[in-house]
Structure formats: C-alpha cells, structure tokens
Amino acid sequence: MARYLARRLITLVGIVIIISIGAFYLIHLLPGDPATVILGTGDSPQNRARLYAQLGLNRPVIEQYFVWMKNILHGNLGTSFISQVPVWTTIRAALPIDLEMIVLSQILSFAVAVPLAMSSAKRPDSWLDRFLGAFSFTMLSIPAFILVVVLVLVVAIKWAVPHTGVSSYVPLSQDWVTNLESMALPSIVLAIGSVTVYYRVLRSDLIATLQQEYITLARSKGISQRRILWRHALRPSSVALLGTAGVNIGGLLAGGFIVQYLLDIPGLGYTLVNSIGLSDYLVVQGIVLVVSIGVIVINFVFDFLITLVDPRIARE
Amino acid sequence: MSSSLELSELVEEATETPDGRRLGVLFWVCVGWLALNLLAALLANVLPLPNPLTQNYNVINAGPSLHHLFGTDDLGRDIFSRVVFGSRVSIEAGLGSMVIGFGVGAPLGMLAAYRRGRLDQVLTVVMYVVLAFPAIIATIAILSFWTPRTLLKIVIVIGVAAIPLVYRVIRTATLAVATQDFVVAAKVQGASDTRILVRELLPNVAPIAVSFLLIGVATVVTLEGSLAFLGLSVAPPTPSWGNMINESRTILQLNPWLALFPAAAMCLFLLALNFIGDRLRTHFDVSEGKL
Questions:
Q1: B107-124: buried (b, 16+ CB within 10 Å) or exposed (e) per residue?
Q2: What is the pLDDT of residue B148?
Q3: What's the pLDDT at B3?
Q4: I need a surface site. Which of A116, A236, B81, B123 has the fewest CB within 10 A?
C-alpha cells in the first residue's frame, strides 16, 4: 500500500511540474511583447520594473521559468495590473465558494444517485429501471449551460424569485441562510449532471455484483434485501463510482465557471471569465495553475479512496 | 464538409448487421435527424432563408409566426435562419477537431497496439501525460491567451486535446483484435504490415471508432457552446447556437424563444449523436456478455 501510494505521489509531482511549465508558457502565446500586453493601460516604468522582477522577462526563457517558479513557491503569483490586488488574494477569496458549491452538489448527488441506482439494480428491466435509463440518457445530452438557462427561466418567471447578483452574495460565515439560498440553484444544476453519471455507473456495477455467489448465499440465509444492498453489495460495487466521482469533481472545479458566470456566484470560474474579459492575464494564469493542480490532487485523493474500498488494487 | 460525407458512409458500413440484430426505429430516426441537420447546414446558402444578419427594427422580439417560424430576436433578425446558419459553427467545430483527433490519434493507437514494444511504451506514457491536463481548463487558458480567436484555432486546440483520448480508445480496441488467429494467419502468409493494418485490423476497429467519433463530436459541440458563453468562441454577430443562447441571457424573460430554439436544436442534435454512438457501441460490443 505504502509503495503504491509513493509511486502515485511521484507521478503526481511529475505532472504538477509539467502543468506549471504549461501555465508558465501561456504568456508567451500572447501576440507581440508580453509585457506590453499584460500591462495594458497600466504601462508605466514602475509597473514595468515590477513585472520584469516577477517574470524575469529580460532573461532567457528557461531562467524565466525558474524566477517565476521561485516567486510562486514563496506564495507570490504576482499583482494584477488592473485591480492592483495580489493574484493570490483574489484566488484565496474565491476558492472557498467553489469548494462549498462542489461539496453541496456532491452531497445532493450521492443522496439521490445511490438509492436510485439500488432501486434500478434490484429489478433490472422493470418500468422504473427503463424510465430512469431513458431519463438519465436524455439528461446526459443536455449541456450544463442550457440547463441553467432553462432553470433560471422557470424559477425566475414561474415563481418570481429575484435574481441574486454578485453584490448580494453573502459568505457562508456571515449569514448561512442567505448564503445557502444563493447557492441552491448552482448546486442543484451541478448535481443534476453528477446524478445521471453516478446513477448509470453504480447501477451497472450493482447488477454485476448482485449476480455473485456470496449474494445468493446471503439471500439464502434470509438477510433482508435492504441489508444486502447497503452492507454486502454497495462497497464492492463502488470502485468505478469513486473513479468516476474523482474525474467528475475535477471537472466541476474546472467546468463550474459556466454556472457561476450565469448565476453571478463570485467563485474561481466567475473570476476567471471576468479576468479573460478584462485581459487580466496574470490572474488568468494564476487561476489556471491553481485549478489544474486542484484537479490533479482531487484525482489523487480519489485514487486513494479506491484503495481503501478495494485494497487489492494497491497490491497489483 | 467532405468529412460529413465520409461520416455517413462509415455509419452505413458500420450498421450492416453481422448477425441480424436490429438497431431499432429510434436509431434510424436519429440518423435521419442528423442527416437533416447536416443537409440544412450544407445548403443553408441555397435554402430560401432570410439573411441571418439582416436587422429589421419593425419586428423586434416577435414570437413564432408564419413569416418568422421561430420568431425574431432583439435586433429583428430571423431566429430560424440564425439557428440553421448557427449549426455550421457547431458542426464545423465538432467534425474539424475530430479530424485532427482521429487523424493523429487513431493511426498512432493502431500502430502502437500492433507493434507493441518500445514504440508502444513511449507513446502510451506521452499520451497519459497529456491526458493528465484538465482539458477544459487548458482549452480556456490557451484560447484566452492565443488571440485573435478564430474557429480554426478553437478546432486546433480541441483537436489536439482529443488526440490522447482517441489514441487510448483505438489502442485498446486494436489490442483486442491484434492477437486473434486471422491476424496471425495473415502474418504467416507473409502479408506486409501495412496490409495487415489496413485490410485486417482497420475493418474490425472501425465500428468502435465510429461510435467514439459520434460521441466525440457531441462532446466538442457542448464544449464549443460553453466557450461561446465565455466569449471565447467565434465573435458575434456570426450566429452560433452558443452565441445565440448567450445573447438571450439578458432578455430571457422578455423573449424566451430566443433561448429555447437554439437550446432545443443543440439538445436534439446532441441527443441524436449520443444515441447513435451508444447504440453502435452496444451493437458491436462482443465482450459484453455476448460470448
């Protein structure tokens, strides 16, 4: 187990280094002189000197990477030349919102997907199973942004719920009722996507597990259906589910921007879209780096969870 | 647009049932719907449609009528015409990036699975490293820095991101075939590597490739729509489904038609692609309990 995790950790570090090279190189994709483009209207001698110190722009490209990397390891992602706020401060303010949205949506998804998958797997090909199969397949084809538009339309027009803007966003620590009110719609939208995926993965694995001999044995001992499903079948059926959840949550961190942008939730995605619009390249670069590493770390955590559920995987 | 012709040929070839199992009515309805979409996109210039860019301030935000089938938007442009012309962006993005993804990923995947050894090891490691990048974030990042944005750049970025995925699927599919007796027999008879790859392996990998291709196109269409939302796709006033839904956001309550028609067009297009892809996959999947 320790050896398996150590090997995975080395891969993780390797990938993070490659990602950092990719994120660093982004500014060299800018047309023309990167300093001029990044500084934009703030192109003064002092700002220029500060940017050169941050990115080591007057040195060879390879040295630039190490200057940039050294600054980052000291927690310095640079300062936005548009808002004059350090990039790290911006990211630190937005990140908890993403985490809250993901945690809420995942609690919702598992609470809905697991019982649904069980009721389907209990009687495959029943009318309920067929209905859920067709329904989840349809939902799978609907992009998140269309779902948001339709939900906003229905919620806003039918129930006349006022649209909460960024200015009205209240942090969780300040007033949790108002906070949860504004987080409900984005969490539900993200959960709908997750539920359909989790339901389909868990259903097919549960059906396979329920055909195993130890389940037949448990049945013949007279153990209730509910206990068989929750205590005997769920754990061995959840390896693929956890793998999918790892990839999916990484995708939510990276893809939640659309939901945030549409519903004015000032998380990382919202900040990213705004910064792209303002050509605030250092903020974009910082968010890309943090989110990419976040996705890799989440995948690593779920790989670890899988080895807890099925230790045989680590022994191979 | 020549790639769409190849696609339909491939689909026809792939749906010749080997053992008479039926594909079902819904499958053919979806094929028909896709064909209709492709045809409309291809012939949009010839069809009797109003110009999608012409603004008519006399009919603003009108609901569906005989004169404007889907109504008009806030600038008085015909929504039906914009939906038809807008499909071009989605279809070009989807097919274009899959041409890159399959053009590079599929031959490499087949070669790696057939040759094995050092080549396979090196290619697989490289592909897994590329795959480790969160594709959505990488795409947004590259497109936000690589200005000015054009559809060609979007196609290139998404296409390159698709290469490792295609490689992995095709390699796995080829591995399952490469060790079978008829391949060994061809080898023993002295067939050249090229001949084995093209005549023996390709026909067996093609059905899996087609089903993955369709699902890939659906994924790219969704991605392009998302990029349009962030202002990272083709610039307005060029109509695209993503652009139209995005433009409708501010006047959603005033004119819901503006959002509903492109959204419905996109969802039905995606649904058809996914359904056909899924059907083909289960149809040709011998490993799944059929043996």
A1: ebbbbbbbeeeeebeebb
A2: 77
A3: 45
A4: A236
Nearest chain B residue to A284, by CA: B141
Q: What is the mean pLDDT of chain A?
A: 83
pLDDT score at A168: 58
3-class DSSP assignment, residue B90: helix
Q: What is the pTM of this model?
A: 0.81
The domain locations on chain A are 2-73, 91-309
Instruction: Tokens 């941050």: give the residue.
Output: A54
The verdict on A300 touching B (C-beta cutoff 8 Å) is no
Work out the pLDDT band at B287, boundaries 50, 70, 90.
Answer: very low
Chain B CB contacts of A281 below 8 Å: 144-145
Q: Which residue of A has its CA nearest to B231?
A: A277
Structure tokens at B136: 């959505």
Instruction: Judge: A23–B222 Cβ closer than 8 Å, yes or no.
Output: no
Which CATH superfamily groups domain A91-309? Answer: MetI-like (1.10.3720.10)
Residue B221 burial class via C-beta count within 10 angstroms: exposed 0-12, middle 13-18, buried 19 and up: buried
- pLDDT tens digits along A115-133: 999 999 988 888 999 999 8
Residue of B129, B242, B253 lying closest to A18 (CB–CB) = B129
Q: Which amino acid is at B151?
A: L
| Chain B residues with beta carbon closer than 8 angstroms to that of A143 | 222, 225-226, 266-267, 270
pLDDT for the residue B91: 92
Mean pLDDT, residues B110-118 taken together: 88
Which residues, other chains included, contact B133 with Cβ-Cβ below 8 Å and sequence gap of 6+?
Answer: A19, A22, A292, B161
The Cα angle at residue B52 between residues B48 and B57, in degrees rounded to 5: 110
Identify which of B145, B259, B271 has the shortest CB distance to residue A26: B145
Residue B226 has pLDDT above 60, yes or no: yes
* pLDDT of the residue at A195: 92
- Residues of chain B with C-beta less than 8 angstroms from the C-beta of A23: 141
